[in-house]
Amino acid sequence: MEFRLGDRRPCIALVATLGDRGMPEPLERIPDPETLARWCVEGGFLPLSPRISVAELASARLLREAIYRAACAVRQAHKPLSEDVATINIWATRGTLVPVLTSDGRSADWKSERTLSPVLATIARDAIDMLTGTPAARIKLCADSTCRGLFVDESRPGKRRWCSMNFCGNRAKSRTFARRHREA
Ligand SMILES: [Zn+2]
Question: Is 10-183 assigned to CATH 3.40.50.1970?
Fold first, then answer.
């Protein structure tokens, strides 16, 4: 299963592990601890697979949905649920991943860890950063009715419609193309 990582910021990358949010049965991209471990590596959080328990998988999903709901509330100028705020805050107090400078002095990596906790802590702090540092109008849901994925519109005009040009944007473009082709 593809994770749809792209160059998303950490909290958006976690939220995107539940796909097809516009459907009655969303697509779970981290169905088991092993897949979550693989996501941590492919997402660039950890160099080696961490050991993850079933309880930790549940915590990751809980944090994911707390971030999603809080972002949905904020973008509509509503207060997030207090339990979602609490979930994000609890994770944000934990020890985060530690950045390390690579030998060329020009790029950074995360210090190697073998547990999930610092990944979730880093994501929770990123969520706080996003929720407090982004104008509400720039916190958006994908225009694709199946996807409805969360994204931050950082384009200058602020007219971005899709969570990712590579996935939903291209799908929309090819649908438009097919329709025009049929009509012609
Ligand atoms: Zn999308």
Answer: no
